[in-house]
């Protein structure tokens, strides 16, 4: 938080600054995790998305009227930024430009099987945008259906339907990757 | 059953296990304090950079209004002096200066000849007259 706290002296709008600091402290890490899952498991990209979302949130905070909860509003920005990042990444890949990893501290390597992670990332990438967002928000990030609906700007029923479709597709796609565990699941049930 | 429970998707035991495995296998490592600090610093830098255009906006606005006044205050086209080449009615072939430049005798004093202005095409002669007073 040191960096963001130091900003208060420069911006000189204490109430806005306090709200922003609170937002950063409470939601920064979850925003990175959500972005990581939405952009397909890339730590540097997730941090870029979060950075953009925080900057947008700060600039929009003055006009935020409180119609929605501030966290819903902020995660909506994160989800949109992640979508925007995915679109631009496709363009960058087409023209052969690959962004280098941020210099300095290397990205921490997540625990677990990298091959399985790749499989899941590909399966998520093949889902339509709304199904992917609904699945990540509810099943992976633990938002309720109502919260996810608020973040996605859709009705709860629509989100529920996206969740069912996404789950069915992912189970079909990842059957091979989860073969061992699927047998385990079958024994359990 | 609480209100929040009703707001969660209803999954079978198999689905719950599948989702649990997926969630466990596909998540980032926790952020290190160094990366967190670096992210905060990048956000701070970008927000601080924003202040410059905001502060400069009134100056930029004044400058553009002044430029618009100057532009509108120019004399009408009829009052402006005609470019020298057109006024003199000099007939210069469009590619004469190129031929001269590329195919002239390099042992001669080509630089002085090029500066005579006669060899310039009309557009360039007009520009020259604007800058050097014809």
User: Helix share of residues of chain A?
Assistant: over 70%
CATH architecture of the largest domain in chain A: Orthogonal Bundle
| Main structural class of chain A | mainly alpha
Could you tell me which chain pair has the largest interface and how many residues each side has?
Answer: A-B, 63 and 40 residues
Strand tally of chain B is 0
Characterise this structure.
The complex is a heterodimer of chains A (189) and B (134). Chain A has 189 residues and is mainly alpha-helical. Chain A has 2 domains: 1-106, Rna Polymerase Sigma Factor, Chain: A, CATH 1.10.1740; 111-189, Arc Repressor Mutant, subunit A. Chain A contains 9 helices and no strands. Chain A has helices at residues 2-11, 14-38, 43-61, 70-94, 114-126, 129-140, 145-152, 156-173, 179-188. In chain A, helix 3 (43-61) packs across helix 4 (70-94) and helix 6 (129-140) packs across helix 8. Residues 182-189 of chain A have low confidence and may be disordered. Chain B is mostly helical and 134 residues long. Chain B has 2 domains: 33-72; 77-132, no CATH class. Chain B is elongated, with a radius of gyration of 36 Å. In chain B, 11% of the residues are buried. At the A-B interface, helix 1, helix 2, helix 3, helix 5 and helix 6 of A face helix 2 and helix 3 of B.
């Amino acid at each position: 938080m040191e960096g963001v706290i130091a900003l208060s002296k420069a911006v000189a709008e204490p109430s806005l600054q306090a709200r922003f600091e609170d937002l950063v402290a409470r939601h920064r890490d979850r925003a990175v995790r959500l972005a990581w899952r939405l952009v397909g498991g890339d730590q540097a990209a997730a941090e870029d998305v979060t950075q953009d979302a925080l900057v947008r949130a700060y600039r929009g905070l003055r006009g935020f009227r409180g119609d929605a909860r501030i966290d819903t509003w902020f995660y909506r920005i994160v989800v949109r930024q992640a979508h925007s990042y995915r679109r631009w990444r496709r363009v960058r890949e087409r023209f052969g430009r690959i962004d280098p990893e941020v210099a300095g501290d290397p990205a921490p390597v997540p625990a677990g099987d990298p091959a399985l992670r790749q499989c899941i990332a590909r399966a998520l990438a093949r889902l339509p945008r709304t199904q992917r967002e609904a699945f990540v928000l509810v099943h992976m990030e633990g938002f309720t259906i109502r919260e996810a609906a608020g973040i996605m700007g859709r009705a709860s029923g629509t989100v529920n339907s996206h969740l069912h479709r996404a789950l069915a597709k992912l189970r079909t796609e990842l059957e091979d990757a989860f073969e061992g565990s699927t047998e385990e699941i079958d024994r359990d049930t | 059953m609480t209100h929040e429970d009703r707001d969660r998707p209803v999954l079978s035991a198999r689905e719950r296990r599948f989702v649990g495995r997926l969630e466990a296998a596909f998540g980032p490592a926790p952020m290190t304090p160094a990366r967190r600090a670096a992210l905060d610093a990048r956000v701070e830098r970008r927000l601080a950079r924003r202040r410059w255009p905001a502060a400069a906006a009134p100056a930029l606005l004044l400058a553009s209004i002044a430029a618009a006044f100057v532009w509108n205050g120019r004399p009408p086209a009829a009052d402006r002096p005609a470019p020298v080449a057109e006024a003199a009615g000099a007939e210069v072939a469009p590619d004469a200066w190129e031929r001269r430049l590329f195919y002239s005798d390099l042992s001669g004093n080509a630089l002085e000849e090029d500066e005579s202005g006669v060899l310039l095409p009309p557009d360039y002669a007009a520009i020259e007259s604007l800058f050097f007073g014809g």
